[in-house]
Write a structure and sequence with these properties.
Helix content is 50%, strand content 12%. The protein is an alpha/beta fold. Keywords: DNA-binding.
């Protein structure tokens, strides 16, 4: 997603017209955000994004025809995919985890305040994840009894140096770059370099994805 001074382009995907209209109305009041389209299911979202470019997609999870998880997976296979902000409820832990695994940059509660949604869109458009690593870890701990390691993920750890593994493990524990630097007795710039290298090797988009990988590969165990 490369932007200059143009507004952040947002697509809103939800099977409830009132929710779509509500988001669109809120976003229309932001000078730096433009709603480029709406869709009522995942397939319509994919079709829409064949026609228009979006920097961020607000994606409901449970929709007819194609749900938000499958739609997110398909979007992530595209060149330069948009950031996906998944809408869920706090009781839907498995949905939220499935969204992160599929490539979503974060999730929000459906009843989140408008300013929180706007902030999340701006964060995603800047290429960052919305879900803090600590929250991601808590989420994964809650679904850990139903979480099986993904095939081939442990072998991908062999791509990393020992120090890159250390950094990944600390990211999965929810530490910031500054906290990791203090833990490893290195400069924060060195941590950023290791983090950038490991994310490039593993084809990870953000820290939330890094936390998911750390669990799926077995590098980090729940509550470890």
């Amino acid at each position: 997603m490369t932007r200059t001074d143009r507004p952040i382009r947002v697509a809103v995907v939800d099977d409830q017209p009132l929710i779509r209209a509500g988001f669109s109305m809120v976003l229309a009041g932001q000078d730096d955000i433009e709603v480029v389209g709406e869709a009522e299911n995942g397939q319509q979202a994919l079709d829409l994004l064949d026609e228009v470019d979006a920097d961020v997609v607000i994606m409901d999870v449970r929709m007819p025809v194609m749900d938000g998880i499958r739609a997110t997976e398909r979007l992530m296979r595209r060149d330069d995919p948009p950031g996906v902000l998944v809408l869920t409820t706090f009781d839907d832990d498995e949905d939220a985890f499935a969204a992160l695994r599929a490539g979503a940059g974060g999730f929000l509660l459906k009843n989140a305040p408008a300013d929180e949604v706007v902030h999340a869109i701006r964060v995603l458009a800047a290429g960052e994840s919305v879900v803090a690593p600590r929250i991601t870890r808590l989420l994964l701990d809650r679904v850990s009894d139903r979480l099986a390691p993904a095939n081939g993920q442990s072998e991908r750890l062999d791509l990393l140096t020992g120090r890159e593994r250390d950094v990944l493990g600390l990211v999965a524990r929810g530490l910031s770059n500054a906290e990791i630097a203090a833990e490893l007795y290195v400069a924060e710039a060195t941590v950023k370099t290791h983090l950038g290298n490991l994310m490039a090797k593993l084809h990870l988009r953000d820290r939330a994805q890094a936390v998911v990988f750390a669990y799926e590969s077995g590098l980090v165990r729940p509550s470890s």
